[in-house]
């Protein structure tokens, strides 16, 4: 267990904030709890999504007196995967934030994975961004694929400036869901990794069989030719010896 001491006043985008391999760093209680007069505010909602549905939350930063970072954390308890499954995430939810002013989209865990695609591996997704005053951000929770149970419950935590207001929206506008421009690996290739692996395995098996059969045919041809020449040579020698014996007898 390694300890690393650092002040938590770094910008959220800095590389040394956390190493994704080891999770998201230490829990800092002072930043997770909210007391009256604190520079930050905590908003928490527990809800559920079904496959293909989204829930949206509108955040307004207000007059921003101190903290300028908005951090969104989405967590859910994923059902157990079968032991044979190559991908362990059963129910895939995705978090993203939509900046109303600029239309900029930030995907969950994008800063950690460096990927422009939605995260299909983890059941914890985080976004963090610096905001100006009176900025409007829509936080989107999407039920991308729910394979077990009709719905997947989740918990969403927003830590932002104490001046922010959060409003759950009754319906999500389609523009909030527009992240196709980021999805450079296209959702199809992103979700079909398993199929591709299986295709690769099938290809490997076919190639292996073909190579094996060809090798066997070559072996039979070479071996057969070698055997035939040996036999032909022995037969010729046999004839020669027989002639010698006959000549001796005649003598």
UniProtKB/TrEMBL annotation:
Gene3D superfamilies: 2.60.120.380. InterPro entries: Galactose-bd-like_sf. The chain crosses the membrane at residues 204-228. It comes from the Eukaryota. Keywords: Membrane, Transmembrane, Transmembrane helix. This is Uncharacterized protein. It comes from Lotharella globosa.
